[in-house]
Amino acid sequence: MISHYRVADQPLAACDTHVHVFDSDLQPFAESRSYTPGPATTASLAQHLSRIGATRVVIVQPSVYGHDNRASLAAARQLNAAGDVEARVVGVLDPTRAGETDLRAMAEMGLRGLRANLKTQQTEAADDAISEIRALDRLLAGHDWPIQIFAPLGLLLQIAPLLRALDRPVILDHFAGMKIGPGDVERRLEELGELIGEAPNLWLKLSGACRATDYAPADSAAAEALDQLAPQLIALAPARMLWGSDWPHTGPSHLRKERAHGEVEPFMAVDDVADLARLARWAGPEAARRILVDGPGRLFFGD
Q: What is the pTM for the complete model shown?
């Protein structure tokens, strides 16, 4: 068992698979956005990656840019051109408007997957979720890229038969959208085991741990419950786990109703190096390498 974890211990080609870029110089935010983040530029992202010891990154298209992926792709292009970091993008597209020509053009700039933002869209009906995921799958025909889904656990359990049937990787964001509290460990393990245990195409992203505990303090009973659950989750399918910091750590969505449209939402203070140390304690060295290096390499970098 690892009792400490230094940045210098980070494996070569370790990947942070979940970050966002917010840069109004690269692209203005969508008018229909639900929040206004502060700046998180390509330069500050590079500093974050250096701080945690990652040499690969996956930039995930945030909801504030809607279906326009210019900022995410520009950031990936800048990082790749600089040469210190390999960057890829998981984009968000409207499958009724985008086509193969769009995918090819975006692939040259780093696109390697598409995201279904079901939680942000407040999609609650299973039929609606299934319709969107099938449309994305059709759009990606001819590509073996993953579909990444941000949705509550209950909805994912409802649509699990479709997810298992897809002939491509499916990534479940942020602990598959679960919430955990004291006494929930056994139930959550059963639910997530049912979801991913024997499904060779389903991947679980161990990101946004504070979301999974509903933003409870680090010394809370909810955080302790997650520490109990996570090693058991990893043991279910260590080759199908990913880690993402969720940098730059946007805040809880329920607080957004209290802000005026356009008012800047502060980022949360999260120690990403400590979060990596936590992953190392959960996983142990062999599984941590699979999570940080091998899995992202296969999914996004063609290893």
A: 0.95
Count CB atoms within 10 A of the CB of residue 18. Answer: 24
Cβ(18)–Cβ(205) under 8 Å? yes
Q: Are 251 and 208 in contact (CB under 8 A)?
A: no
> Is the separation of the CB atoms in 60 and 111 below 8 Å?
no
- 120-128 long-range CB contacts below 8 Å, 24 or more apart? 120/34, 120/63, 120/150, 120/253, 123/151, 123/155, 124/155, 126/155, 126/158, 126/159
For the stretch 292-303, pLDDT in tens is: 999 999 999 998
Q: Are 146 and 203 in contact (CB under 8 A)?
A: yes
List the structure tokens of 100: 């193969």
d(CA 115, CA 148): 4
Q: Which two tokens stand for residue 302?
A: 């063609």
Greater pLDDT, 12 or 277: 277
Residue 7: φ, ψ to 5°: -55, -35
CB 242 within 8 A of CB 17: yes
Residues 35, 18: Cα–Cα separation, whole Å: 19
Task: Say how many C-beta atoms besides its own lie within 10 A of residue 31's C-beta.
Answer: 8
Q: What confidence tens digit (pLDDT) does each residue in 153-169 have?
A: 999 999 999 999 999 99
What's the DSSP call for residue 60?
A: E
For the chain, helix (H) and strand (E) counts, in that order, are 12, 10
DSSP annotation of 129 reads: H
Q: What is the pLDDT of residues 165-215, one digit of tens each?
A: 999 999 999 999 999 999 999 999 999 999 998 899 999 999 999 999 999
In the structure, what pLDDT confidence band is assigned to residue 9 with cuts at 50, 70 and 90?
Answer: low
